[in-house]
Design goal:
mainly alpha; disordered C terminus; about 65% helix
């Protein structure tokens, strides 16, 4: 068991770093590339109809089990397990469950990898010592959520091999196609946003998906990537790195930590939470 997640430890410093937001859609693609996750999204998710509410719920949940303290994390973990227990159905003629161990572990794996990739692309890569602590802390979070110890490798080096092997087995599926269409057509969260600005934002999101996906998966999905694209991404990453790296970790993770504390309070006051989230709080009808 690793050190608890407290100020200054690896997960505290890197998981909530705002630069990880650049990989949000990439993480979704990697998750739904798994056939069991794809089936669950197809049968139980309402993200295409209301992606912004879905995004807010996800951010709130992530913030709790990393930054909400041990008690808040245990409550949120129990809620997530209960929520996903009802997500079952048929995929290719076989019964599936959202809590199928390998699929459940893969979802957690994508969330573990994204902050590390964010530092590699947009910041300073984690040292071997930081990676070791980060991985063990995130494995502890996974066990809290119900990920079995045997479903994730014992260290970061083995995890990278596991991750590459999983990615190598994925290809285009219906859920990925739907996700791409959602990214390309998602409506503005606020009507006052200029349409031209929003169109540029949507194009930028797809560009970041293409830029940050593992190259083998990008190729198998038929996503074009040129030398010109690579140079464009390198310039963008360099600008982000130049602006953000001098910012102290406490400020880079501040918004996520604040959301975590706020959501712990909301979970302790479910009536307020349900009112503000239109019934999407604890005890509401489950949706992905």
């Amino acid at each position: 068991m690793a050190r608890p997640i407290v100020r200054g430890t690896a997960v505290w410093r890197y998981f909530g770093d705002f630069r990880a937001a650049f990989l949000a859609e990439q993480v979704l693609v990697l998750q739904v590339a798994h056939p069991v996750v794809a089936a669950g999204v197809r049968d139980h998710s309402g993200y295409t109809a209301d992606p912004w509410t879905r995004l807010l719920r996800t951010v709130g949940s992530l913030s709790i089990y990393v930054y909400g303290g041990p008690a808040g994390a245990r409550v949120e973990a129990a809620r997530l397990r209960a929520l996903h227990r009802s997500f079952t159905g048929l995929a290719d003629g076989r019964r599936y469950s959202a809590l199928e161990p390998a699929a459940y572990a893969w979802v957690h794996a994508t969330l573990m990898k994204a902050p590390v990739d964010a530092q590699r692309f947009f910041g300073v890569p984690l040292s071997d010592v930081e990676l070791a602590e980060y991985y063990q802390q995130m494995c502890d979070v996974g066990r809290l959520l119900g990920v079995r110890e045997r479903d994730l490798p014992s260290d970061w080096t083995a995890f990278e091999r596991y991750y590459a092997e999983m990615v190598a087995g994925f290809g285009l599926n219906e859920a990925i196609g739907t996700l791409f269409e959602t990214i390309r057509t998602v409506p503005k969260p606020f009507r006052w946003l200029p349409s031209s600005w929003w169109q540029g934002f949507r194009r930028g999101q797809m560009f970041l998906v293409r830029a940050t996906l593992p190259p083998s998966l990008r190729e198998s999905l038929g996503l074009q990537w040129t030398d010109v694209d690579q140079r464009k991404f390198a310039r963008f990453a360099a600008r982000v790195r130049w602006v953000s790296t001098p910012i102290p970790a406490a400020l880079r993770t501040g918004p996520m930590r604040w959301v975590g504390r706020l959501n712990v309070w909301f979970r302790a006051h479910p009536k307020v939470y349900r009112a503000l989230t239109r019934g999407d709080g604890p005890g509401a009808k489950p949706t992905l």
